[in-house]
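Structure (tokenized):
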């Protein structure tokens, strides 16, 4: 169903737009707004961190010592001033009064708004186990966390990372690379690493690679409790099967929790996050929510691609530009973990209705697995050489029937195109067309001679 923005051009051009949060989603929204002639003329951005927006995706190479902090900054403070954007850093919004359309920060600052965008992001999801509040337990979500982990790596000792997804593995590899005599263990609740993206074979390949580099990876790990020393610092991790691990520090990277408390406190409709419609509007027409703190049709968000689409819709809406509303669409996951490239989309497990095609080059460390249903690609996992991933995804979105080219599918688009061309040359339609073209050319030549 096609939907359009409910705002008319220039309806809100002179309004005061206040954005709570100065993360990647908020910054991309501002970048989109300032390019528009019908942008709100008064824009205020409030960030809880003391630094301007930065690229959180690059925290891992920062931790690993492969990048300087300045390289993460998206725009410096001067840019905001040049764009006529009022930037407030190091303050957290504590109260929101929707009736008077005002908010108050922890410094006592009070601001009024005509329209408000909540883009407060998320925080690490903490396991509900005894000892999780001990000193020495950290997350890995911001610059402060990266600085703390760097200090941990330099001190050495025993670090335990809870979570075998992308963020957990990057934190573990960063500690290992930056470490000074540090032992790093990774605990993954599932039986395989990155279980939402990888099948069993790819997960085993990744585990073998990371184990060879020096990480201790434990899958199927059920966390029971954290034990403290006499000073109240974390000292050990206990698993349900009785295994105990020494831990001078614990890093939690096992999912995220949306920062929706401000919306709940203000009486907005919330579930796991702040509920929004297709224009990112909350239950209050004067308030929008964006990114990891919002929930649309039961879905919450942690990947960049859908959030960027949300930004496009919200920027257009705030500028009074007609636009289609936001809708979830299939997306592929492209990752690189410490030099290992991965590409995946669709289901990770094959059903009884799937035809499974596999390719595994042990010498080069490349692996591909395709799931087909009635000749159409429904899922793919690529490990190592991921160059054909976008082509597979394109075919899946188009619903292309690839039954006739199954023998070439695992080798990618170029090989399939060769078969397609060969098939078109030998098809009955092609032969008939070739015959007609030959006859037409002969008749034309004869007529020319007679003239």
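Design, position by position:
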């Amino acid at each position: 169903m096609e939907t359009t923005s409910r705002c008319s051009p220039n309806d809100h051009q002179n309004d005061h737009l206040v954005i709570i949060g100065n993360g990647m989603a908020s910054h991309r929204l501002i970048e989109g707004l300032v390019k528009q002639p019908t942008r709100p003329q008064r824009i205020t951005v409030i960030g809880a961190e003391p630094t301007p927006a930065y690229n959180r995706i690059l925290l891992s190479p920062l931790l690993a010592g492969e990048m300087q902090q300045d390289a993460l900054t998206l725009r410096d403070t001067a840019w905001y001033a040049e764009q006529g954007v009022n930037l407030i850093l190091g303050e957290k919004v504590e109260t929101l009064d929707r009736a008077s359309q005002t908010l108050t920060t922890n410094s006592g600052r009070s601001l009024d708004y005509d329209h408000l965008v909540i883009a407060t992001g998320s925080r690490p999801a903490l396991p509900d186990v005894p000892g999780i509040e001990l000193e020495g337990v950290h997350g890995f979500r911001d610059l402060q966390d990266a600085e703390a982990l760097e200090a941990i790596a330099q001190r050495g000792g025993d670090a335990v990372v809870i979570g075998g997804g992308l963020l957990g593995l990057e934190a573990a590899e960063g500690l290992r690379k930056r470490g000074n005599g540090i032992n790093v263990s990774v605990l993954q609740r599932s039986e395989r690493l990155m279980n939402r993206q990888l099948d069993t074979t790819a997960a085993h390949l990744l585990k073998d690679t990371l184990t060879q580099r020096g990480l201790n990876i434990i899958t199927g790990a059920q966390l029971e409790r954290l034990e403290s020393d006499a000073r109240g610092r974390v000292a050990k991790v206990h698993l349900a099967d009785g295994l105990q691990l020494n831990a001078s520090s614990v890093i939690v990277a096992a999912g995220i929790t949306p920062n929706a408390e401000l919306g709940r406190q203000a009486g907005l409709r919330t579930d796991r996050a702040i509920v929004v419609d297709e224009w990112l509007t909350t239950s209050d027409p004067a308030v929008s929510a964006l990114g990891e703190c919002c929930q649309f049709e039961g879905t919450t968000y942690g990947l960049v691609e859908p959030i960027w689409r949300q930004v496009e819709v919200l920027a257009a809406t705030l500028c009074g530009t007609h636009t289609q509303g936001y809708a979830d669409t299939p997306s592929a996951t492209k990752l690189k973990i410490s030099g290992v490239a991965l590409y995946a989309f669709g289901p990770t497990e094959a059903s009884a209705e799937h035809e499974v095609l596999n390719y595994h080059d042990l010498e080069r460390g490349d692996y591909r697995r395709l799931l087909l249903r009635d000749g159409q690609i429904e899922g793919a996992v690529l490990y190592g050489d991921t160059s054909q991933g976008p082509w597979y995804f394109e075919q899946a979105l188009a619903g292309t029937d690839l039954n006739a080219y199954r023998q070439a599918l695992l080798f990618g688009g170029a090989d399939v195109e060769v078969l397609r061309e060969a098939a078109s040359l030998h098809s009955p339609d092609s032969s008939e067309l070739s015959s007609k073209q030959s006859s037409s050319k002969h008749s034309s030549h004869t007529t020319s001679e007679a003239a």
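Reviewer-requested clarification: Residues 333-426 form a domain with the Enolase-like; domain 1 fold (CATH 3.30.390.30). Residues 1-10, 430-451 have pLDDT under 50 and may be disordered.
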